[in-house]
Specification:
The chain has 435 residues and is of the alpha/beta class. The chain folds into two domains: 175 residues, 3-Layer(aba) Sandwich (Rossmann fold); 222 residues, 3-Layer(bba) Sandwich (FAD/NAD(P)-binding domain). It is built from 15 helices and 16 strands. The site of flavin-adenine dinucleotide (FAD) has 34 residues, from helix 2, helix 3, helix 6 and helix 7. It comes from Castor canadensis. This is NADPH:adrenodoxin oxidoreductase, mitochondrial isoform X3.
């Protein structure tokens, strides 16, 4: 029986001889028998984001026979490269060209609109393939866990990004931008992306691939000020210098940074390793130095503003008098304790109410589980760190994969020092083992 809801298309020029795994297999063990008899490694990758595509690319490149099936719950591939990266950063999306080359291989097939866990289970995939790589990203955002979070006007920044990037499940978001002030909780690149998209003059966004619907709403936006709030200080921000520089130079806006937040940093700056030092210097200059004549004139004419608000931890979303929507956010003022990695924000006991009509939470994604019991848990931690990552760095919190393989297929049971440190190398080992 054909699985329900499945639609697929081949990226490859050659039709595949192997059917997709089905929920109701004709005979128990059928797929395993079918796939192992060829002695060609049949690899399944769940999720078609950068982690999935880099894994597929690596396997295809290093194993001349391996076949890779990529299963993706969306109709279209590329995960957050398509639905996360901001529309005004088209150069970041160039990686799609490489992924498309991979998908065009006659040893690779893309199966869209297949949600693993719903349409097919992980155990079924394990039965059907020699190895299964789970690289399904991180879907949910973390809840704030504060009163008032459920009020209209409190949104996840991730949903907001999905909305302007055309992610089907976020198209009904309908953010209300009729307020004067928006607050973004979190100080990472996603927070800056959202602030930038909200404040960029719509005529600039017209040239990007932002959705028409989002552009229409942004054209009507009344938001004049965006606060980007963090629990800790300038040394702990998670955004990068490129994104900060873009904000500082954003047409029609001026930055608001409180020099008091940078007290004492001037003396410590030399000890800070690059590139954080450069990032901190840029914030420090923006906060404390008088702008040049041209920049001062630009800022004077600016109709919009954005600001970094440090040492503030959200306590409560404040309702409007009729209780129908957001009117502000109560923030606990914090100070830092401990140093280095252990630095944490502790409340001073003082509070501040910040009026706003929109709160966007950008406090990081949450990993979900797909029922991958039996994954090689001993190495989960390594996979979290070692996954091939499209930015070229070590995998971020979203860049996560686990791999399944029958232990008997390993050529030997090597000790930890010899074991492959990422799913792709592991799969190559399977290939070397004659699977
Ligand atoms: C808003 C945002 C903007 C970003 N911008 C940048 C940037 O500009 N530059 C940069 O370097 N990094 C950026 N990142 C980080 C980067 O996108 C991630 O690190 C990267 O996409 C992680 O890759 P991934 O393959 O692990 O996950 P994803 O890209 O999330 O891919 C996972 C895929 O798995 C699919 N999937 C999930 N569940 C299932 C299931 N059950 N069955 C089948 N398929 C499933 C998803 O639909 C998705 O396609 C951004 C992240 C976010 C959230």
């Amino acid at each position: 029986m054909a699985p329900r809801f499945w639609r697929w298309w081949y990226w490859s020029a050659w039709p595949r001889i192997r059917p997709p795994p089905a929920r109701n297999t004709p005979t128990p063990g059928f797929f395993q028998q079918f796939s192992t008899q060829e002695k060609i490694p049949q690899i399944c990758v769940v999720g078609s984001g950068p982690a999935g595509f880099y894994t597929a690319q690596h396997v295809l490149k290093h194993h001349p026979q391996a076949h890779v099936d990529i299963f993706e719950k969306q109709l279209v591939p590329f995960g957050l490269v398509r639905f996360g990266v901001a529309p005004d950063h088209p150069e970041v999306k160039n990686v799609i060209n490489t992924f498309t080359q991979t998908a065009r291989s006659d040893r690779c097939a893309f199966w869209g609109n297949v949600m693993v866990g719903r349409d097919v289970t992980v155990p079924e995939l394990r039965e059907a393939y020699h190895a299964v790589v789970l690289s399904y990203g991180a879907e949910d955002h973390r809840v704030l866990g504060i009163p008032g979070e459920e009020l209209p006007g409190v949104l996840s920044a991730r949903d907001f990004v999905g909305w302007y990037n055309g992610l089907p499940e976020n198209q009904k978001l309908a953010p209300d931008l009729s307020c004067d002030t928006a607050v973004i909780l979190g100080q990472g690149n996603v927070a800056l992306d959202v602030a930038r998209i909200m404040l960029t003059p719509p005529e600039h966004l017209e040239k990007t691939d932002i959705t028409e619907a989002a552009l229409g709403v942004l054209r009507q936006s009344q938001v004049k000020t965006v606060w980007i709030v963090g629990r800790r200080g300038p040394l702990q921000v998670a955004f990068t210098i490129k994104e900060l520089r873009e904000m500082i130079q954003l047409p029609g806006t001026r930055p608001i940074l409180d020099p008091a937040d940078f007290l004492g940093l001037q003396d410590r700056i030399k000890e800070i390793p690059r590139p954080r030092r450069r990032l901190t210097e840029l914030m420090l200059r923006t906060a404390t130095e008088k702008p040049g004549v041209e920049e001062a004139a630009r800022q004077k004419l600016a109709s919009h503003a954005w600001g970094l608000r440090f040492f503030r931890s959200p306590q409560q979303v404040l309702p409007s008098p009729d209780g129908q929507r957001v009117a502000g956010i109560r923030l606990a003022i914090t100070r830092l304790e401990d140093v280095g990695e252990a630095t944490r924000a502790v409340p001073t006991g003082d509070m501040e109410d910040l009026p706003c009509g929109l709160v966007l939470s950008s406090v990081g994604p949450l990993l979900q589980r797909l029922g991958e019991e039996g994954a090689h848990r001993r190495h989960r931690h390594d996979y979290d760190r070692q996954l091939p990552h499209w930015s070229g760095d070590a995998a971020g919190p979203e860049g996560r994969a686990a791999a399944f393989w029958p232990p008997a297929w390993l050529p030997s049971h090597p000790g930890p020092a010899q074991e492959p440190r990422d799913p792709a190398s592991l799969l190559l080992r399977l290939g070397e083992a004659g699977c």
